[in-house]
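Re: that chain you flagged

S.,

Sorry for the slow reply, it's been a week of failed gels. I finally had a moment to sit down with the sequence you sent. For the record, here it is as I used it:
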Amino acid sequence: MSRVTMSNAHLTRRTLLAGATAVALGATTGTARAATADTAQAAAGGARLTTAPGEVPALWHEFRRTPFTHPQIPYVGRAGYRGGATRFPRPRVVADVTDFGAVPDGSTDCAPAINRAIAAAGRAGGGTVTIPPGIFRIDDVIRLGDSHVVLRGAGSGRTTLYATKNLTELVGVYGSRYGGDKSSWSWAGGLIWLAPRARWDSLVAAIRSRAWPFEGWTGNSRDEWTTLTAVAPARQGSRTLTVTDPTGLRPGRLVLLRLADDPAHTLLQHMAGGGPGPASYSWDDKTKLLSYVPYEWPVRITRVQGRRVTLERPLPLDVRTEWDPRLTTHVPELTGSGVQGLTLEAVQTPQSPHLLDKGYNGVVLQCAYDCWVDDVTVRHVDNGFGLVAASACTLRRTRVAGRGSHHPYFCREGSHDNLIEDFTIEERTVPAPPGTQLHGINVEGLSSHNVWSRGDMRMGTFDSHRGLPFADVRTDITIDNTGRHGGDASAGPLFGARFTHWNIRVTNGRAGLTRIDGLAPYSATVGINEVTEFDQIDVPDFTGDPHSRLELYGTTNVVRPSNLYDAQRELSR
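Prediction finished late last night. Pasting the structure tokens below so you have them in one place:
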């Protein structure tokens, strides 16, 4: 593959942001030029191709022909709250926190009053709890544990919750279930915590008894489920299943599709794209990864006709007999709840050494489905916004600011079909203390079909934190790529199949998991400017041809469509 010289070695954030606004969404006509990535070239910086403004990649034309089964690009057109709804509901106001004793003076502990107002809304069957402008001190976790409850401030520039304590003080020492002195507050829990009441109670009890819990959909010991029916084989991309017994199924019900791995780990191989590389990979010693299976995918049923069941979104994987496929119950989800229009500011403390975070964390959604966060800023936090066993949720107009964070955004423990859009990670306001680490937009733990869209990352990186995340998309993002990815070796591969980076503008030219054609199997890297400085730790997990695609590389022009998620949404209408 020839190397075409292009003068873009000194791109600025202003140049890249200006280019990002130049092209409309629709993919119509244009000259397409495709490039199949070569592993050796990718490791050395790879091939570069010039392109005309607004050029349409060949991959887009291919995807439009086979949107649900494309080998490199996942279908994410229904990610997010209610399949990507552009408007969130505004349920009737049932409580104002000042009526329950909250005082916006910045010194009175208002957490009890706010939690009483939220509990009252829960008892009323849902509704909006309002917080007027001002600074409200909170000395405890704000908990949303009932469905259809919305906590709404007057705007992120007008309503502030000022948090004085951390989760270690408030809940207890949350050590890692994998041993050692790691703090699980490094990747879990928030000072605003959306989780079903039953899940909150079991987590707190387990933490205080030092019985470190599993945090996924089915409970601490993975036994909080009941089989509803066995499922016949089906193909990835299908929206229908044939079941053995439909009697427990009805339209609107949320169920778990549960797939167990077999002794040969063919489920994990399938998540990695299959073929000789995944077949020869050493899976048995990846103990942390193996703790993530069975794979659990929450989905609502939209139709039941005899033994034929229609789902609200296409299957993320094949369904095969050897994986004991079944639909099951799950821990009761939190649904229809949200947080809007406020800033959560933690008392400013130095960032803790790596994996010893005390838990000055922002907003976390756990076992949440069809929930949202909108117009929320977190400041001076250890970890910003978290999705833990959360699915079909939207984070919109969110911002991480202040002294710097370990994980500005984390997505883990089997979180699927979430949308994070119009997000900002600001530059840190103080230098990073020695021994700390910065990641960025994290995904791990078999999490799939999540989307990060329209982002302004002034620090951090595209952190695939091992644990075989697959079929995730990052699109239309400007990044000053200053972070490093993480992940325990026992968590296995950095990437599974069908990871896509589309229209990415790297302002400092550092590769660092933004260009993934030599790393992620069956992946696509489209419309990224020239990057170098490949990290020594960024090496492929699988041997052989990764079957990845690199297209329109080395361009400062925005490709069409400029935003892969928005374009997929248009296709699905």
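What I noticed first: Residues 1-72+500-573 form one domain.

Talk soon,
D.
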